[in-house]
């Protein structure tokens, strides 16, 4: 059974049928989406050097723009117990990535999200459904240093809010990601839409 179906329980059946199909299928085979990021915004200017360093770990990036082509690929690992997320953003002169590896904590019923390659950040994710859309919120976060994970104080965390839905009239998925810091405000934001031939 999909780790996302497990974490959502009966709520999974409240998702739009195309979201149900997407999140169930990615536990059995690679699922690829291609589309356009309508808007990408980054952190304040003084954080740009740090964002550039994070590109080496395929975590965040300093570039901003609109109408940016992108690809999202979800690949099952460990017989579907882990899902590898690869997100590529094709800027005019540079391809940037925002990658992660997700798995299920069955006791706490949260998704464990390791961000970057190799992982640099860890976050607990809680999933819910609203009007057929999938909502994801980050909770506790840790800095990953090799085999050591250091809890981050709240003021140092990047709190993520994600919404994924499906637009019947366009026959496209919609995605919106917002990452904010309690002190610095917005660290990262993107909003876009995509299609997936694997689901048609």
From TrEMBL:
Residue ranges of every copy of the DUF4166 domain listed in the record: 15-194
Pfam families listed in its UniProt record: DUF4166
Protein name, as recorded: DUF4166 domain-containing protein
Organism: Piscibacillus salipiscarius
Organism placement in taxonomy: Bacteria, Bacillati, Bacillota, Bacilli, Bacillales
